[in-house]
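Onboarding guide, step 5: your first structure request.
Type a short instruction followed by the sequence, for example:

Predict the 3D structure of this protein.
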Amino acid sequence: MAEIPILQDWEKKSAERQKHYKRLLQTLNPRKTYEVLPELHAEAFSHINCLDCAACCKNYSPRFKTTDIKRISKTLKMKESIFIETYLKLDEEGDYVAKSKPCPFLGADNACSIYAVRPSDCTRFPYTDEDVLLKRPQLTLKNSSFCPAVYYVLEKLSQNI
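The system replies with structure tokens like these:
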């Protein structure tokens, strides 16, 4: 897929625009923003293929909630305790996260070996079609530094003010 102009050098541009994004997230009208997010999310993913990147899976871990652990361990035919012992650790906030980077379920082709039962954080990531974008600005800023879809949506929101 040919790179579109807005995504050229996006990582450098995102780093340069962090202060702008912080102000943007503070000044956006939530109701109007929530109305346009689904369209901007779909537009971003019409240009971006996660399998080309997988930076989220290579560098960060989702939270593995109790329901995720039950579902994934059942699919893998493992006892929950063995699944936790094998793949997870508790982080400083008391959440289960992957022990290793990249994610142990990420394949060499950037595909997820447990995609159908992946954690809910993975299903929802990068939160560009939901209220998390505005309600957790620090997370949005962090995500914009490594996810081209978040960068794309923030740039489009910047253009529409």
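Each response can be followed by summary notes, for example: Residues 30-47 form the longest helix (18 residues).
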